[in-house]
UniProtKB/TrEMBL annotation:
Stated family: Belongs to the yippee family.
Keyword Magnesium part of the UniProt annotation: no
Protein name in UniProt: Protein yippee-like
Residues covered by the Yippee domain: 13-114
Keywords annotated in UniProt: Metal-binding, Zinc
UniProt keyword Phosphoprotein, yes or no: no
Amino acid sequence: MGKIILEYLDGNRIYVCTKCHIHISNYKSRISKNFRGGIGQAFLFEKGINYHVGQPEDKDLMTGKHIVQDVICNGCNKVIGWKYVLRIIKAYRESEKYKEGKIIIERHYIRRIKWS
């Protein structure tokens, strides 16, 4: 594996990894905070940085069956959430299609900086 180049976000309202403190996303990219992860509240983001994904797998989540990939922090290599995989064919449930390509980060694994 080559050298990992970390990115940093400009401005305020940044979410960082609680373990290694690298930037993950920002307030503007947050779509919703009404999600549940394995250990509590989770946020849905349009996009993020400084992460890579695991292999796609079928998972039964609270809203039904989804194809997801683990979201893994590039700084500390910890699983911090998951990404909904884009499907070439229809989503299992059409009402859940808006999540495809988005990422969920569990609140436990991120904290806010520059929030004033």
